[in-house]
Amino acid sequence: MSLTHAILGFLHRQSMTGYDLKTQCFDRKIANFWPADQAQIYRTLEKLEMEEWVSSTLAFQLDRPNRKIYQITEAGRQELARWLTETVSLPVHREPFLVQLYFGDGLSNERIIAMIAQQKTMHEDQLRAYEEIDFPAIEGPFARQLALAAMTLHIGMAIEKTYISCLEALMVWAHELPSNEEL
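Given the sequence above, the corresponding structure tokens read:
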């Protein structure tokens, strides 16, 4: 997936500014699985305008800077429709902690256990953050959109629970490691 398709998806639902995309969409709706910073969003919007997948209009304001409002074009709708039916490949996961663990043979068992405990705490914090999301009732004219959003939250929570469970197993295993002195 690319940032391009996430932006096209949001603009398909509603025209908005780059700032609105960041604050109302990426930060509030999909940050748990697809974060984006303001600069990335604006660079992508420029590219999308060059591809003619979005267009923009300037909204003049007297008391503030003018706003550039983006809307999806017919070509953008076609690209989004094409992408939505495409089979996506599995993501490439990069886990810095696992690289540390892999090369941690020079570390003490206590340090390894502390690293695992720290990772577990961070994943527990993330799970709590997901659990605190105030999700509205899945009903009304946006029931389908809300149900699909609930699915993404469910998988995010399941991933965190699985990671926590794996870290708990690693903690047991780490307590049974031979010490550096024994090798």
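Residues 1 and 87 are 10 Å apart (CA to CA). Try to locate this feature in the token string yourself.
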